[in-house]
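Q: I'm writing up a methods section and want to include an example of the input and output format. Could you take the sequence below and give the corresponding predicted structure tokens, formatted cleanly so I can copy it straight into the document?
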Amino acid sequence: AAAAAAENGSSMLGQREASGAPVRKKPASDAGDGSDNADRAGGKALMAPELRQQWNEFRAVVGRLRVQLEQAQTAFAFAFVEGALVRAVREGHWVLLDEINLASTETLECLNGLLDPQCTSIAPPEQWDQPVPIHPDFRLFACMNPATDVGKRDLPPGLRSRFTELYVDELQDQQDLISVVAEYTSQFVEIDAQTNAEIVDFYFKAKELAATTLRDGANHMPHYSLRTLCRALVHVQLTAAIYGVRRALFDGICASFLTQLDTHSYNAMARLIVQHFALPDLSKGAKGSTSLVHATLPPCPGPRYVRFLEFWLTHGPLPVQEPQDYIITDFVRESLRNVARVVASKRFPVLLQGPTSSGKTSLVEYMAKCTGHRFMRINNHEHTDIQEYLGGYVADDTGKLVFQEGVLVQAVREGHWIVLDELNLAPSDVLEALNRLLDDNRELYIPETQEMIKAHEEFMVFATQNP
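A: Here is the clean output for your methods example:
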């Protein structure tokens, strides 16, 4: 009705004139003026300036109402967004359900129909009346660790029987391992076949020590796997251009096999490392008599780097500030050296384990200030919500729901350093959300926005926990 009134202004003006509203009338002698007739035809000559202003304001209000009405008719406050599995079913993609035995019972029940060979379509619970046909090229794969692992459970027999099951054992054949090592080191002429065999020989001896005498900081037997070895070799690929192949190999082995051990086991492993990968520039280290400290430093690789102990670390966006109130003992210096070995590759996450108030978080904060990186922190507890990490929907100034990114998302996008304090206190849904980010993919998935974020090259994630 308001829109109709605005479009039929002449009739409204006539009503105003009949009710005694003030109008401007011209003398009768001017009635034959052509311009006056034109003004009257436009309806402007009958309207006082203040009344014209009121009608202009009314017209603007009606215009806004019309836009809101059109938007309400063509849009909804909430809409169903298909997940990755539904899109794969519709478009014929291949899907891998990693760690499927960690999924909830409700999630596993939703897969029953999809695993039925006679099933031709699936219907999401939110759209049960709109079934999605299964594309002929769609394939489903699942991975799981044995139920004997800590925190793992077995799949329900009814669900497990629907899969074609394959067992993938750990790679243990010496020649196979040499082939894997050779693939990682093929770009380096300094590493020959004998060196590759020496790396594999060290790997077998490290696993043997771990099964007999070695213990980590929590007094548990350390677990060395193919991933441990491959991460050491990736470290070589990432840092050899700065430090040389031999030192990069030494530091990569130390970062992967040494730093998680307690003091006694640390010395035993250090002796094994020196026996296989000794360098001429090693000097006496802080932990015992084993030499693990480099006496020389290669030339600075560029203006984006800053020196930290015997390493070149990339300079962050902030000015370098070395805290004067941070006390560096021999033990602290050795801990900083071990963390710097990992940070030099800018690829792998770091877990700091130790008793309460042992300086785990301040260690990272000190390094961040010395290298000009922004330091961020999340304190975990048993009630930590995933929204504290990823963010959630909030109302903006206009009342519209918008997604506000969490602290972790900001750090991943912008390349900050973040510490996840007391990570072992976080709920399982938080830990599961971090799996892909802590893996070699370095990706973070946001379910609310269906977005996959690739980590910034300067992003580093650290975690702390008590034994």
